[in-house]
Specification:
211 residues; mainly beta; outer membrane lipoprotein receptor (LolB), chain A; twelve-stranded antiparallel β-sheet; two-stranded antiparallel sheet; 51% strand
């Protein structure tokens, strides 16, 4: 499966506006009776073909104290993703696809959103529709083996608004955006948060350059 990452997805998705103009009127991008397959496919198609991103990964305590900081560079060209992470000394750090980045809350799945390409998914029957940052979302459950990720997708634009991973029926990790910024002619979240339940800290991911 080709790697994809959430910065590119959110950069192109219309999470800033829930509708598009049509002859002076607003109309939904996605029909009200959208199926889970249609909604997920729209979310997948939102990824730009080519993008380059630079930013920081910052581990913070609950009180906001910085405990560790890294810089990163990511690029996606011809459906291939490359990710490099560096310490303060500028040396490259290994970022395994399994596990977390040096004790932070960030995993490879947080960067690539690989769960969006799992084949087993359906609307969450217990949480049919919820709002995230004022946007009405459909809640979709993505499954692969024992892994379960619940995602909130804006039902009008297909934008991913929030994601939560479960284990043993309990939430263990959550990802969400907190700020947005305009980079050239596109909007993108420039601050995101990742939290592992009960860890006592959060990891902030910033986007400083996007092209």
């Amino acid at each position: 499966m080709t790697c994809r990452f959430f910065f590119a997805l959110l950069a192109s998705a219309a999470c800033i506006s829930a509708a598009v103009a049509d002859g002076g009127k607003e109309r939904p991008v996605i029909p009200e009776n959208v199926t889970a397959a249609e909604l997920v496919e729209t979310c997948r198609r939102s990824i730009p073909a080519d993008v380059e991103i630079e930013g920081r990964i910052i581990l913070r305590s609950r009180r906001g104290m910085v405990q560790a900081e890294y810089s990163y560079r990511m690029s996606r060209k011809n459906s291939e993703t490359e990710l490099s992470v560096y310490g303060k000394d500028g040396k490259k750090i290994d970022f395994p696809r399994e596990g977390r980045l040096l004790g932070t809350d960030v995993t490879w799945s947080d960067i690539t959103l690989d769960y969006l390409w799992w084949d087993d998914f359906s609307f969450d029957s217990e949480r049919e529709s919820e709002s995230v940052h004022g946007q009405k979302c459909r809640v979709v459950q993505m499954r692969s083996g024992k892994r379960l990720v619940r995602v909130w997708i804006d039902r009008k634009t297909g934008a991913l608004m929030q994601a939560e991973e479960f284990s043993g029926g309990k939430s263990v990790r959550r990802l969400w955006g907190t700020r947005i910024k305009k980079f050239g002619d596109r909007w993108a979240p420039n601050v995101l948060e990742v939290e592992t339940t009960g860890s006592g800290h959060r990891t902030k991911i910033t986007v400083e350059k996007l092209k």
